[in-house]
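Quick one: structure tokens for this chain, please?
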Amino acid sequence: MTDLRTAYELACDLHAEFAIPTFPVRLSRNGMGKWEKQPLTKWSQAPSDPRELNWKRANAVGVPMGTRSGLIAIDLDDYKTGSGAAGWLQERLLPATRTHTTASGGRHLIYRLPRDVDLGNHAPPVTGIDIRGSGGFIVWCDVNCRYGVLDCRRPVELPQAICEELAALRRSAYITDAMVPHYTRVSDAELVMKLERLLKQTAGQLLTARLNGSTVGLNDTSASGLDMSVAAILARNRFSFNEIVQTLLTRCPHGVAARDGWDARTERLAKRCAFRALDDLRHRSERRRKAMEEKLRELKYRFSTKTNVSEDDAQ
């Protein structure tokens, strides 16, 4: 069935209903039979009003995700063999929201971003899922109805816990689960004593502020941002991986685990925070060591040159 409306008319209707920016897209199959989505303008800079764009060659309507539209899409290719999309969704109990089918047979779950939250494109470590945020776009509809509507409700707000999980994945994109050690519980009494000693020191003042919920100086003021800051402070003060994980899970009143409870998901996030904090510290130490070695070589060279010049003058 072919929609008699042009891409331009579809875009105008969409813009009027949702007050979101749209841009022209050419949808076609390549030689491998895969659907290609070619923006017909520099979509990241395109004006929001479709009347200001050339829709002559367009047969589909694109919508930028992220801050420009206030939307984010979970792109599910759950038709693919080995896809873990269904399990990922079931674990997170995501609320129903506007849902579209895609030309390739997948789905777009379209959510509204919470105020002051910006998420980019992400690829969770699960086959069959991609996140389209700032820097990405989706095809919303097309003239041949290859992109259909499964659930026509308006996009609902993406839960804060999912926002923070995706933000944490972005910050630690280079970390895989295989890299992260197993967590082994440490003595609560010994951990409390070690924390109390740190909190009494000057170096513990920032930790005190973070445990009290202060986000001053943080770019990421979410619960996961607080967790990452706490992990970094503990790493600098010689806390072990297990001690950092346990602190995040049991001793951070404003962290993710305190808000959502200790479960497999929050433990995984705590382990990744601890690993990243220690890994960042190791890299910084390595950079400082190399800088010191370079400075030492430079000083030795200068001393050697000066000595040779002095000897030449003496002769």
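The first helix runs from residue 7 to 18.
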